[in-house]
């Protein structure tokens, strides 16, 4: 959706504009700021490039309108189901569809609507609005001796409201990016205006009990007109501020919805247009400047004559049927406001037979379009869903306050920078084809036939990936070179997709897929930023994932392997070096890359080498992802499985599905990732058949705790030592910084003078206070990886000598020896 706003120079035309010209003091502002109103929408739209409704958005509109307008007063059933887009193309091009609002399970849709956060900034705007309406109402009935002081007070309050509103509109426009934020704000604020104006009768009667209903209604309509003008002025101010900020023409356009609100008071005075035209007497007289009684009488008289003509001339009914007007209710006066009926009567030269003048027909058509647009927008306005935070929980405010909302929901806060929080927490999946560039170059050298075959395979691969994405309801975010990024709110969906992608790749690999060097898959649950990206085609815009989550997945799928060492060896041999000397030279690197013997017999495996480097040729999961997965699993782990001389926790991805895949998980260890903190990782393996000889797992145990226990049992059974024992004086010091973060210092403790030698700050992610595992247990279980991590850091920095007494002064200080975490120098 294009972020393409801008000021449009257009003057209202037609009978309505001729009858009600704008006030002289506001004429220039109207001409510059207001786009065409919906009752001009029968003309070619100049805003269709603003936002093109998609199939999904039209479905959301249809769902909401059919639910809330079971018996519409002015819209027809066809218009409720979607034909309103043809009648009001400008509105269809700018209104955002109601969003699905999910429950805490991220699956069940509670309602559709526009989520808006109740914030201090929005409360302040409402307060300024209420003060203004109160001052305006009082000024019309209070006999104050100091008239000038009252006028100054009203002028000051108008300016306060206008400036507050302009600030919010400017913020909304700056962060809109074609998402329809301004339209949602206008819908919301117009509802606040209706609420505030509903207090005008009470305010007037409080100061003048003798005020008549006519005086009260005239005051209410007059105040509504003033607020409409102030909204318009605020929009112009916001646009001018953005122009000055950019120091050049911004190319922005103001929303067509602004013209609807500022040129017609109906949306500011009524929550919903009443079906009885007599109940619109105040609006018709003061806003539309037409007497309600005479209008109803004219419509009633015309309908009776039309019915009489249809009885005497049946062909008239056939004529009306061709334009769909025959299905209209001809026993109600308001039916005469239907534009299709009026157009058909005009085309058949029957208007004079109904005792209607051409000018009356135009007035009726314009009023009918106004009422249709008002009914449409008022229905969407009722879908504004105020939300508030109760502690860490987001809930619907008001009557539905007991309903908790998915924590991933990002409600609009129009008064806050950005309006919508750009930070999201999602489950992510990235796959990466191993050695893609090298294979592609080799295929190119084989000739055109090989390239075409590779293209066909890649086409089949991408088609199957799209089928998996649709089946697992994932969002495709972007291509990453020879891989891609997918996201979802549910961890189980992402894991199931990863399993199916690996199975798909394995089948293609055995069918001649040229990119057969392997596939790396990484899953995480982390933070992402939504970055607006503008594309040149149609000035369309989409939001790309950006931030820490992407970096983490990229690091998890760039694991090294011994094959890359083999490529270096091949290069050296071709360069003329002796093969024996090359093997001796690269032997230490090959040994390091080989890592743990686990996974050497599996085609898809992940290990961590002796230097703490990740070697990913399978599926790797982060601990936060595993925690999310544990929350979603409906069935417990089916058991502990010994596979490939390793202990795994196994479960079915879809227990109710006979064709389900089975997943095994094991604790991989702590890995060093470039540019990121070392972190614990988990490996996943996929089986198509239930693993045999599965032992029952402990029930009610957190999944991560189970994997850690299995890893500990496995280490105890294997007894695999380090190449060198853990130094007994290797000290681990931890303390909390004033900002709240925890620091970890590793170094060699010297007892003689209580100093930590070669002290290095190590960025690790240890369990927090909410974890089931103690710090001492975690340090002991991961001592091998932590020693390797410290040794690797020592190669790049010598560290510094730090007196332990200095570290003891920090908050929440603790220290222990890594070889025996129960021992402390204190």
Structure description:
This protein has 826 residues and is α+β, with helices and mostly antiparallel strands. The protein is built from 28 helices and 21 strands. The strands form four sheets. Strands 5, 6, 7, 8, 9, 12, 13, 14, 15 and 16 form a ten-stranded mixed beta sheet that branches. The protein has a five-stranded antiparallel beta sheet with strand order 20-19-18-17-21. Strand 3 and strand 4 form a beta hairpin. Helix 6 runs antiparallel to helix 7, helix 7 packs across helix 10 and helix 18 packs antiparallel against helix 19. The radius of gyration is 35 Å and the shape is elongated. The N terminus is likely disordered.
Strand content: 15-25%
Q: Determine the N-to-C terminus distance.
A: 62 Å
Overall 3D form: elongated
E-strand count: 21
- Which structural category fits the helices and strands? alpha+beta
The share of residues in helices is: 40-55%
Low-confidence spans: 1-51, 595-599
Report the major sheet: 10 strands, mixed
């Amino acid at each position: 959706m294009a972020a393409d706003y801008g000021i449009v120079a257009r003057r209202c035309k037609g009978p309505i504009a001729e009858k009600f010209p704008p006030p002289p003091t506001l004429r220039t502002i109207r001409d510059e700021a207001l786009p065409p109103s919906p009752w001009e929408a029968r003309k070619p739209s100049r805003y269709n490039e603003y936002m093109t409704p998609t199939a999904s958005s039209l479905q959301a509109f249809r769902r909401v309108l059919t639910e809330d307008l079971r018996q519409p007063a002015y819209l027809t059933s066809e218009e409720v189901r979607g034909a309103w887009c043809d009648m009001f193309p400008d509105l269809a091009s700018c209104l955002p569809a109601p969003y699905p609002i999910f429950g805490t399970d991220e699956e069940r849709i509670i309602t559709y609507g526009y989520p808006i956060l109740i914030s201090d900034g929005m409360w302040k705007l409402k307060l300024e609005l209420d003060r203004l309406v109160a001052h305006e109402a009082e000024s019309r009935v209070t006999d104050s001796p100091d008239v000038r002081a009252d006028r100054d007070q009203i002028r000051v309050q108008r300016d306060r409201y206008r400036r507050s509103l302009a600030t919010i509109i400017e913020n909304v426009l700056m962060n809109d990016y074609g998402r329809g934020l301004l339209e949602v704000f206008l819908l919301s604020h117009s509802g606040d205006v209706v609420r505030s104006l509903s207090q005008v009768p009470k305010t007037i009667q409080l100061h003048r009990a003798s005020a008549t209903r006519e005086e009260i209604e005239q005051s209410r309509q007059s105040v509504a007109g003033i607020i409409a003008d102030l909204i318009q002025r605020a929009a112009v101010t916001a646009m001018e501020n953005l122009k000055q900020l950019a120091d050049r023409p911004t190319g922005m356009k103001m929303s067509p919805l602004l013209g609807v609100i500022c040129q017609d008071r109906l949306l500011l005075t009524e929550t919903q247009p009443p079906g009885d035209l007599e109940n619109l007497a105040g609006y018709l007289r003061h806003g539309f400047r037409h007497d309600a009684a005479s209008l109803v009488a004219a419509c009633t008289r015309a309908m009776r004559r039309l019915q009489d003509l249809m009885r005497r001339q049946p062909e008239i009914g056939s004529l009306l049927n061709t334009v769909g007007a025959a299905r209209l209710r001809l026993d109600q006066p308001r039916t005469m406001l239907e534009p299709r009926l009026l157009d058909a009567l005009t085309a058949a030269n029957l208007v004079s037979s109904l005792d209607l003048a051409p000018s009356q027909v135009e007035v009726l058509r314009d009023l009918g379009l106004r009422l249709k647009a008002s009914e449409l927008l008022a229905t969407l306005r009722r879908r504004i869903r105020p939300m508030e935070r109760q502690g860490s929980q987001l809930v619907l405010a008001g009557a539905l306050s007991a309903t908790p909302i998915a924590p991933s929901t990002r409600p609009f806060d129009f008064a806050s920078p950005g309006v919508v929080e750009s930070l999201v927490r999602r489950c992510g999946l990235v796959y990466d084809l191993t050695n893609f560039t090298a294979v592609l170059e080799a295929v190119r050298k084989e000739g055109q036939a090989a390239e075409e075959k590779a293209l066909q395979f890649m086409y089949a691969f991408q088609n199957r990936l799209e089928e998996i994405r649709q089946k697992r309801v994932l969002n495709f975010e972007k291509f990453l070179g020879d891989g891609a990024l997918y996201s979802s709110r549910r961890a189980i969906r992402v894991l199931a997709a990863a399993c199916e992608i690996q199975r798909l790749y394995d089948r293609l690999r055995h069918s001649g897929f040229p990119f057969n060097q392997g596939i790396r898959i990484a899953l995480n649950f982390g933070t992402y930023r939504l970055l607006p990206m503008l594309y040149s085609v149609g000035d369309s815009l989409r939001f790309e994932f950006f931030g820490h989550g992407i970096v983490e997945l990229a690091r998890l799928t760039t694991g090294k392997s011994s094959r890359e060492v083999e490529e270096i060896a091949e290069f050296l041999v071709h360069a003329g070096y002796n093969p024996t000397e090359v093997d001796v030279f690269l032997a230490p690197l090959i040994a390091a890359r080989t890592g743990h013997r686990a996974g050497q017999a599996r085609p898809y495996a992940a290990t961590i080498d002796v230097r703490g480097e990740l070697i990913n040729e399978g599926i790797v999961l982060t601990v936060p992802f595993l925690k999310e997965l544990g929350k979603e699993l409906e069935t417990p782990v089916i058991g502990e499985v010994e596979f490939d001389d390793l202990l795994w926790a196994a479960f079915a991805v879809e227990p109710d599905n006979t064709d389900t895949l089975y997943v095994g998980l094991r604790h991989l260890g702590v890995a060093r990732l470039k540019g990121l903190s070392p972190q614990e990782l988990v490996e996943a393996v996929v089986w198509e058949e239930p693993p045999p000889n599965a032992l029952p797992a402990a029930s009610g145990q957190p999944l991560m705790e189970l994997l850690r226990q299995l890893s500990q049992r496995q280490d105890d059974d294997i007894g695999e030592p380090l190449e060198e024992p853990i130094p007994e004086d290797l000290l681990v010091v931890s303390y909390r910084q004033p900002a709240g973060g925890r620091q970890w210092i590793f170094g060699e403790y010297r007892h003689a003078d209580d100093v930590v030698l070669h002290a290095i700050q190590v960025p690790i992610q240890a369990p927090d206070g909410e974890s089931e595992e103690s710090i001492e247990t975690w340090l002991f279980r991961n001592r091998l990886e932590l020693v390797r991590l410290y040794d690797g850091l020592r190669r790049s920095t010598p560290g510094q000598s730090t007196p332990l007494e200095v570290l003891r002064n920090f908050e929440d200080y603790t220290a222990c020896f890594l070889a025996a975490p129960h021992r402390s120098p204190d």
